[in-house]
From TrEMBL:
TM region positions: 14-39
Cited Gene3D superfamilies: Methyl-accepting chemotaxis protein
Alphabetic keyword roster: Membrane, Transmembrane, Transmembrane helix
Keyword Membrane: yes
Keyword Transmembrane helix attached: yes
UniProt cross-references to InterPro entries, sorted A to Z: xxxLxxG_rpt
Name of the protein: X-X-X-Leu-X-X-Gly heptad repeats
Length: 858
């Protein structure tokens, strides 16, 4: 029977209204959430596919959730569940098709038989293998379900075309991005399936009853949104459009637009219009599902639909009651989430402050540890230097004692010489008086004078060397005293710095004192650099060739590195020896700068600071001894040096006198006839000898006093260096404690920072999740109330009318409707299915997003 004949016979259009109403209820009317078809959404296979092939984003996930909330399935007991992902451009043209199949191993079989025409097949959830022969697949399941994916090129059963308009004119999505004006977006769906069924004894061609459900996430700036065949959900945070269509259903039922009442619609497209500023569409997605998977037809007798209609009535009543309860529950959820959101904001702020503080702390600990480790590695040089200083001081004390003893022997000899000269003078006087024995006396006198002249010459030569040695010792002692003063000044500053830097509880070092000490040390080192390098002409020429104005504390390491690499600098310096001396000096100064940088680091550990304080105090005591001894040494050598010229004059006079004496004795022997003149000369020479001897002995006390003072100073110096040596173990022990403590702190840095980062990340995720839940709960609450109100209206205006229509004139139309449902039940797979298997399939179209362009013409 043709539809016009049926209309003429029944005189009613309720039959068409019922068809549309039943399918609409099944597809978009429930709004209660998916029960089976998307149950595996969070499985490994499907989640991986969505992430890797559809460009999944938060907007896409949100719209997917809303689309799933718009459909409800009958229980899905199929052997093979298939999800087809179609990646499209913004106009709906498919670029890639990826299929995910789930084989359900209900009986826990070792092998599962399947059929598939897909390419690039791979297991996406396990390691089970398969063999293939043509389209036949055999999986080694081992009792497990199988999830696999592949690619396809076959046309989908429903295609969609998306058309965009701006101010009434068609426009490409690329050109629409960022534009403003009146925007219209139209989705046209085409059902390409065809099945031949027998209807009322005649063969009819019908399509699979597919339903297309489309969701759009709109950008900012959309107002006055209107939707044809759908609805819009607008909130402060987002605008979402949901639309639906039943492509091919009117043709399958033989219905034309004029056959429908004004309040009944079987749509084949979806359309949205809005006033837009700076157009963007972050996400768009369409679900295409088989209506037969949504309406259970098991056990239905098409000749008698009374039971189904009664079930429909009961179900609508339950939906009405359930929607009311749902609305009340969503209100409670929204209130609780709002309170939680407020408290989480305060907590997240505290976590951020904690993370920043831990980062500053761990950076400081790492810097301190690096300096202390370098200081700890230098303790060996400190111990070695202290040992050498102590050894040298001991040798100096021993040498000064020897000098003291030998000077005593010298002064005793000088006194004896003076007495001999006096006796000689007296004897010559007697000789002058008793010239009778002149010849014998003159001969003996000549022999003695020769010996005396030789001794006097040796004495004079020795005095020259002694005088030079005394001068050198005096210069060295003076330099030692000056260095001791500087060393003491540095020690005093270090002692004041360390002692003054610890507060009354011994807890920490004062940053101001340490900074002042560090500055003073830097100035002293720079002064040494200027004296050793920067003020010397030959070094200035070299620095100019290296393009360096002067060597400073900050660049000494870089200059040393360049000089060490430039072996050709020996030519500029005049010799390799000069070059090597320069390089050695630079290495020494580089070491001094390294020590300065180490000691200028801020110290934080209380126990370590106490150990360092004790070491510095002992160091200061030792240096005080060094200063006292070096000053006494300098004073002694000064007295010795002051006496040296007089001593030298006496030696010269003695030498001259002995020469004159020898000349006199020679004359006496050779000129006995002129005895009187010779005796006179002899008398004169003895007088000079006596005078020289007197001068020689005049400074004996000064020499002995100087030697005694030198010996006292050397002994004090040795005692001071020994005290320094004794304090070294305490100092190195304190340094080791500092190094060990800082290394322990550094070892925990990574764990502290990692924990803080994990805490911050977790907190941010919780806050973000609660924000999303809060927004979602508001939307859910609004939707639940709308659903509750709509269910009341739907029950009164829809279900009751369906009952009236069914009881009036629907029954004659059931055979044609059954043919459509049968076609839907026959369509079980997009790819392929093995004999004897049952299947279900759904299609997910992911359209490309359209991003706003900040610089587009508005």
């Amino acid at each position: 029977m043709k539809l016009p004949e049926l209309k003429e016979k029944l005189k009613s259009k309720y039959i068409v209204r019922v068809v549309a109403g039943v399918l609409t209820i099944a597809l978009v009317g429930t709004g209660i959430g998916a029960t089976a078809v998307f149950a595996e959404k969070n499985s490994t296979a499907v989640t991986a596919e969505a992430d890797s092939t559809t460009g999944s984003s938060k907007d896409a996930d949100d719209i997917a959730d809303k689309l799933m909330d718009s459909v409800s399935l009958k229980d899905n007991d199929a052997d093979k569940d298939e999800s087809v992902y179609l990646i499209s451009d913004a106009n709906g043209n498919v670029n890639k098709t990826i299929v995910v199949d789930h084989l359900k191993n209900k009986d826990k079989k070792d092998t599962l038989e399947d059929a598939s025409n897909l390419s690039d097949i791979e297991n996406v959830k396990g390691k089970e293998k398969f063999t293939q022969s043509g389209d036949k697949l055999t999986w080694q399941a081992g009792g497990k379900d199988i999830y696999y994916q592949g690619t396809a090129t076959a046309e989908p059963p429903v295609t969609q075309k998306v058309t965009y308009y701006l101010d009434g004119k068609e426009i490409s999505p690329e050109d629409l991005a960022g534009k403003s004006g009146k925007v219209k977006i139209r989705f046209d769906y085409t059902n390409t399936t065809s099945y031949t069924e027998t209807v009322n004894g005649e063969k009819q061609t019908v399509s699979v009853p597919f339903a297309a459900i489309t969701g759009l996430v709109l950008g900012d700036g959309f107002e006055n949104i209107e939707v044809t065949n759908g609805k819009a959900e607008v909130s402060d945070s987002s605008s979402v459009v949901l639309g639906y269509a039943l492509p091919g259903l009117k043709d399958s039922l033989g219905i034309k637009d004029g056959d429908l009442d004004g309040d009944v619609n079987i749509p084949e497209y979806m359309e949205m219009t809005a006033d837009v500023k700076n157009f963007s569409m972050p996400a768009a997605m369409t679900f295409v599902v088989n209506a037969s998977d949504y309406v259970s037809t098991d056990g239905i007798d098409t000749s008698d639909l009374d039971d189904m209609i009664n079930d429909l009535k009961d179900a609508s009543t339950q939906l009405q009651d359930g929607s009311k309860t749902l609305a009340e529950g969503t209100d409670t959820l929204a209130d609780g989430l709002s309170t939680l959101q407020s408290k989480l904001g305060t907590f997240a702020s505290g976590v951020g402050t904690l993370q920043n503080g831990l980062k500053t702390y761990t950076d400081g600990v790492s810097t301190l540890s690096g300096g202390l480790n370098t200081l700890g590695n230098s303790t060996g040089a400190l111990v070695s230097g202290a040992d050498k200083l102590n050894s040298g001081a001991g040798q100096l004390a021993s040498g000064s004692a020897t000098l003291k003893d030998r000077l005593k022997s010298y002064t005793d000899g000088a006194n004896g010489l003076a007495k001999g000269a006096s006796d000689l003078d007296a004897g010559i006087g007697t000789l002058a008086e008793k010239s009778g024995t002149l010849v014998d006396g003159a001969t003996k006198l000549n022999d003695g004078a020769a010996d005396l002249a030789t001794g006097a010459k040796d004495l004079s030569d020795g005095m020259d060397k002694l005088n030079t040695g005394i001068q050198d010792v005096n210069v060295g002692a003076t330099d030692l005293a000056s260095g001791a003063d500087q060393l003491k000044a540095g020690a005093d500053k270090l002692n004041v710095s360390v002692n003054g830097a610890v507060d009354k509880n011994g807890n920490k070092i004062s940053g101001d004192v340490v900074e002042t000490l560090s500055t003073d040390m830097k100035v002293q080192i720079q002064t040494m650099l200027d004296s050793k390098f920067n003020n010397k002409d030959e070094i200035k020429q070299l620095l100019s060739s290296l393009k360096v104005d002067k060597i400073t504390v900050d660049n000494v390491s870089e200059v040393t590195e360049v000089v060490a690499k430039r072996t050709d600098l020996g030519t500029i310096m005049g010799s390799e020896e000069n070059y090597n001396n320069l390089l050695s000096g630079l290495y020494q100064m580089q070491g001094a700068v390294t020590l300065y940088k180490q000691f200028s680091s801020e110290l934080q550990n209380n126990e370590q600071i106490k150990a360092l304080k004790d070491g510095v105090s002992s160091l200061s005591t030792g240096i005080n001894g060094i200063e006292s001894g070096s000053k006494a040494l300098a004073a002694g050598t000064k007295q010795l040096a002051d006496s040296a010229p007089t001593l030298k004059d006496g030696a010269i006079a003695l030498k001259n006198g002995t020469f004159n004496l020898k000349a006199g004795t020679d004359s006496l022997v050779n000129s006995i006839p002129t005895l009187t003149g010779g005796i006179k000369q002899l008398k004169d020479g003895s007088s000079q000898l006596n005078a020289g001897a007197a001068k020689l002995t005049s400074n004996n006390d000064t020499l002995n006093a100087g030697a005694t003072a030198l010996n006292v100073g050397a002994s004090q110096l040795s005692a001071g260096t020994q005290s320094l040596m004794n304090s070294v173990p305490t100092l190195t022990s304190g340094i080791k404690q500092l190094v060990d403590g800082s290394n322990t702190l550094v070892a925990n840095n990574a764990q502290l920072n990692s924990g803080a980062s994990q805490l911050a990340d977790g907190t941010n995720q919780i806050v973000s999740g609660v924000d999303q839940l809060t927004t979602g709960s508001k939307t859910l609450s609004e939707g639940a109330h709308t659903l509750a109100d709509g269910m009341v209206q739907f029950n009164e205006e829809g279900i009751n009318k369906i009952l009236d229509a069914y009881n009036g004139d629907l029954k004659p139309f059931t055979n044609k409707l059954q043919a459509v449902i049968d076609a839907g039940e026959e369509y079980q797979t997009y790819s392929a299915i093995a004999d004897g298997q049952t299947g279900s399939v759904k299609f997910i179209y992911k359209l490309a997003s359209i991003d706003a362009k900040a610089d587009s013409d508005k």
